[in-house]
Amino acid sequence: MGVIMRTICALFLLATQSMGAPEAASRMNISENILSQKDEALPIETMFQVPTPMPTFPPSENLLRQKDEALPIDTIFHLPAPLSAFPPSGDGFATGVIDLGELQVTQISAFNKVWSTRDGGLHNKGATIFEPKNIPKGFYMLGSYSQPNNNALYGWVLVAKDVSSNTTKPTLKQPSDYTLVWNTKSLNINQEGHAYVWLPIAPNGYKAVGHVVTTTQYKPSLDKIRCVREDLTDQSEQYSLIWSNNGFFVYDVRPSNRGVETLGVRVGTFVAQTVETTTNLSLSCLKNINAQKTSSMPNLQEIDKLMKIYSPLLVLHPKEKFYPSSVNWFFSNGALLYTKGQESEPVKIEPKGTNLPQNGTNDGAYWIDLPIDGTNKGRVSYGDLNSSISYVHVKPMYGGTFTDLALWVFYPYNGPSSAKVKFIKNIKLGKIGEHVGDWEHVTLRVSNFNGELWQMYFSQHNKGTWLDASQLEYKVGNKPIVYSTLHGHASYPHVGLTLLGKKGVGIKDDAEQSNFVFNLAAYELISAEYLRYVVIEPPWLNFKRHWGPRIDYDLYKGLKNMRHILPRPLKSLIDKIIEVLPKEVLGEDGPTGPKEKSNWSGDEV
């Protein structure tokens, strides 16, 4: 109740300040006041003149100044430290070429600029369209590449080579014609020339996987691009918006079905469309039909090298009290296993979790909790940074052309949440947000063509954010920085306050610089299914139940009850707090382990 009253007092202060108070007015003789108003000169009786004539700039000069302004995309991004070659291992990782089954592909990151605009798009900086250059002999272009101008140039497209023995139906064919999707000639925008976006018309039994873009109205050569035999293609979907203007949309494209067992291969191309739709795209993606689809995945030695190069540095909040620990430390220091119906007889968990129930379903029959005695309970809840390691799960993505390294971090306890309401910067929410057993993770997405880091995923509660490698912060070499938020332990790429709400009201995710840095290079490889029996999974990984007990909070009910006795301004503010409180933090079970998350076998959400 103390927390509730402090919250209500803060809201009452906000309401009274927003309502204001009437000021005392002095009495005045009405006729005297009217007379003084008649004698007083009014501002409207003076004509305003501009002190100095405004200079004029010809439109061409304005455009010239905009064109001369450097944009982020004018710089090509390179990782901070050069990559050393991966030693020959007899496997297919980082060899430059991947065999999809009758079709070889390689990744091209060198481009010629075709067209650019400085209007629209992210941050109103426009977008640029490129086509690949320096294509190896025997390989063919599959489509163009496009990127917003607000980031350094850092992209790729696949080019392909037919290695089949089928002469009657090869894997690649020229288009039979082109259809004009759209052009920019009539647009009143700052652009370099005009763009004409062409969709290849694929022969029967083939699919187009990319566009050709020219700067004239004449159709490109049929030899410019290749379409792909349909059994080597899969369904695609639009991903992130690159650029739009007046009913025209340019989207990045990715496979619709993504995960460990899926075969769709991302081509790196974009889709241009005049209708904003997410289904029935005009372009497909590739498909890996090679029987050895994971032949380009890294082996144990290559995984270790990737971890040495890219393992992130986790920066904890300077006011953080609940640190991560190793799972074995948590078990060895008194963590207990509870059984439904036998709550009075919890069992101490063995150091490696060997006595935890294996497999099954999350049926509520078992759960994990902190030690019973107060001293150990508090001590264990604070974690042990010195014992902490990252738990690494390695899996194929995009049909085995990329490797995802998911780095999981375990916290024995998740601390309480706080909220911000308008200019009241910090409202403590009591025990809301607290729970036992907090699993957090980040994911590194590495190209299997060359071993280069392309993207990184930051998990934030029940969702997260993908960023390109060009948008990350780096501390030592190619090690990106991850900022962990106060008590909630969500992962962010940069410092700052993120509100989980709207209109200045929400739960706080607060990330700051500090000297508490956890190097995730200390790791245990817990799973890599494609290596079959090479990696032995620890027993605790197959514990399917909750890593903490069910917790119900009283603050939510208290706020709802207090709402009925408060004036209207306070009621609306309480409604705003209640609206942004996630259901999972108002009353929740401890989280499940990594293997129970949807991203274990699928893509990140």
Give a brief rundown of this model:
The chain is an alpha+beta fold and 605 residues long. It has two domains: 96-287, no CATH class; 300-598, no CATH class. It has nine helices and 40 strands.
- The largest beta-sheet arranges its strands as 31-30-29-26-25-38
Helix content range: 10-25%
Low-confidence stretches: 1-5, 8-38, 54-65
Q: So what's the overall shape?
A: globular
Radius of gyration: 30 Å
Beta-strand content estimate: 25-35%
Instruction: Give the number of DSSP strands.
Output: 40
Signal peptide: 1-20
Pfam family, one: Vps62
InterPro entries: Vps62
Keywords: Signal
Mind explaining what this structure looks like?
This protein is of the alpha+beta class. The protein folds into two domains: 96-287, no CATH class; 300-598, no CATH class. 15% of the residues lie in helices and 32% in strands. The protein has nine helices and 40 strands. It has a six-stranded mixed sheet with strand order 31-30-29-26-25-38, covered by helices on one side. Strands 21, 32, 33, 34 and 37 form a five-stranded mixed sheet that branches. Strands 1-2-7-5 form a four-stranded antiparallel sheet, with no helix packed on it. Helix 1 (2-19) crosses helix 8 (568-580) and helix 7 (555-563) packs antiparallel against helix 8 (568-580). The longest helix has 18 residues, at 2-19. The chain is globular and about 80 Å long. The model is unreliable at 1-5, 8-38 and 54-65 (pLDDT under 50). Residues 1-20 form the signal peptide. This is Vacuolar protein sorting-associated protein 62. Pfam families: Vps62.
